[in-house]
Amino acid sequence: MTWRGGNNVNLTRRQLLRIGAGVGVATAGGVLLTACGDDAQGTAGQASSGAPRKGGVLRVGALGKASAITRDPHGVQNNESDFLILSLVYDALTVPGVTSNVAPRLAATWEPSADVKRWRFTIAEGATFHDGTPVTADDVVWSLQRLRNTPAGKTRLPGVEADAIQADGTNAVTLTSTYANSELPLLARLTTFTLKKDTADVAGSPGTGPFKLESFQDGNARLVRNDAWYGGDVLLDAVEVRMFESPQAMANALLAGQIDLASNVGAVAARVAESRSDVQIVKRPNDMAMPIVMRVADGPFADVRVREALRLAVDREAMVKQVLSGYGTVANDVLGTADPAYDKALPQRTRDLERAKRLLTEAGFDRAKTYQLYTTEDIPGLAESATLFATQMRDVDVKIEVVKQESSAFWDGTWLKSPLYTTYWGTNDSLVFFASKTMASDAAQNEAAWKDPAFDAAYQSAVATADQTVRTGRLKELQKIEYERSGYLLWGMADGVDLAAAKVRDLPKLGGYGRVQLERTWLSA
Amino acid sequence: MAVGLTRRRSAYLAGLLARRAALLVVLLTLVFAAVDLLPGDAARSTLDRGATADALAARRAQLGLDDPLPVRFARWIGGLATGDFGVSARGEPVSAILGGHLPNTVLLAGLAFLVTMLGALALGGLSALHPGRPLDRAVSSASTVVVAIPEFVVASLLVLVFALWTGLLPAVTVTSTSGRPASASMLVLPVLALALPQIGWNTRIVRAALTDELRAPHVEAAVLDGLSPWRVLTRHVLPGALPTIAAGAATSVGMLLGGTVVVETIFNYPGVGTVLAGAVLDRDTAVVAGTTAVTGAAICAVLLSADLVRAWATGRRA
Q1: What family is it from (chain B) (predicted)?
Q2: Contacts of B39 in chain A (CB under 8 A)
């Protein structure tokens, strides 16, 4: 799924980050809860806290802007609060999982045709809308076609035309792709919300999800448990979603006990909360990638040795510590770090200034020149990552000047064009997502203008097979090429950071949009 | 004679109205142009990142962004005349967005104004009546300090002390299902954050105006006539000081409404300030212009009332 990363919540998060930068780097204290328990729901929480308990109201804070409220499940949701509400009321065909990056939701099972072009999704047994009517294949077809016909539909369901979405009996639908695509179930995650066929007014229309919408007002909503949910027992009586314009206000609300969960509040708020023993800090790893893009097609970084040199010159540990306030992990220049097929065996690149200098000399890199690194303040830490990177490059005598651009100017004029810039991506549990979107030669968003026939071949054979063993082998090959030659320098991965009251249990621990999966969350007595 | 005076007065009033209306039009033009000058537009912020150039162009056409600026401005201001504020970049009527949030801001700014004037009159009055005494000096230094502190610092300190440390008051505003703040206690901190700097500013004005007036010959005469201090204050001092105080108060209304952008964001208060902050980021011209139009009109109306008070006070004296 394409994700605009959160171009929406920037002003205040950015301000917050500046405030946080003044705090400096200290050692992390307090209660830090990393992912524990590896159950299928992908949840975190205080370990061994007894059996899940039914009841209670969870008050959740999520970021959003009053002027950007979108209630259309198939619209462009810039507000995290809107997306959270929609994800609790409506069900997508599939959702992110822990052991696999695709887990069943409204679709219980799916299987491809032999040529991996046609996928058949079977609707979960007992799935009903909140008004009691059963979900039929017609409802799913109508909803998917509606999604496909939105302006964003083409990128959300690539290769699948509206008329290639068809009912197959009463409880199954088929999607036919114009090319062999083993990733279709993955692409069907999260926005393939199903509404009743011919719903005229989509805002507040009945969904099939774990919670029913009771009220909605200016971005805030109250949702109550759907006792008839086909997906299993929902424990919370209700979820109250509160929209926050700024993460700082959201953190204050949590610290003052006005909300129980501050969703995606960020590392700076977490640092503030570290001294509070009554607050859980939930880290969701691999939430955000902020790679540096080095243009391959032409320009100063076209020589693979130059790109290799910069990858060796960056101090990854320092980047994670300073840019992400320690809330992140070191990465190895391959995107899709949370994919189960991510190759941990590739040697971790570490700082090697001597080799970097040697490579630059061999490549005849002009070290007298100053190179511009373009960046934005779209998400917390992005501009800071550029500044620290530029400082580190002085150690290999490469002069980099950071140019901070306004968001729209960046996306219109710099992105996909400039030789050196920062980018960011919020979907990080799929290697193929990045290969198809940003690295295959003909990818529409080929950020580094990288064309590599061997990579293309590995990618195409990986998506053309449903055989897991073959696929894993191809993906390994793909990652090796990406590691050696792509235009990306991925120094680390930012954690998603939530704050929660002590009583909240089994919170989602997946990165990215996985944070909205609150159906298994419960409150201890 | 009386007829001539009335005519002169109505001509003066008409002139005032015309000037304030012209000011509003200039303001709206500037705001509309300013949002346009910012890089980027609403089409980009309402599409997915992967949107193609074609999709972007289609969206621009749909939002009417490909028309020249004067055409868009004329269309918008033409609609305004009929009460049509246009639609946001996401297709929501701007009047609906403002309708939900404006009453909250009016409530917040109105309470802050009330607190400001009560505080300023009380403190300024006390200071003026006891010039040079410790109380006067304390009020004077305190008012200088609070004037110098920006709203966001005041707001952050209030949250820290009253919500996070002592837990006496809520840290943020939670909206009830009616769209209004869920409890009155949630208004206390935002009102204080807005009012404190303005109390400082107005206290100084009130004190200066009263001090000047206390030295006036007619006041001295009234005191010598043996009138009670209360009578001297209400009948002889305040009327003379009123135009100055009204001008200060009118300025404060503008500052209060401006301050809501910051204060509402810090307290997550559901007013037009938060709407404006978000809309500027999204380059949502219709929402920005609509918000400015409404608050601009309110400020113009307040300035007009201050002018009227001055006219009335001057006329009374003449």
Answers
A1: Belongs to the binding-protein-dependent transport system permease family.
A2: 406, 408-409
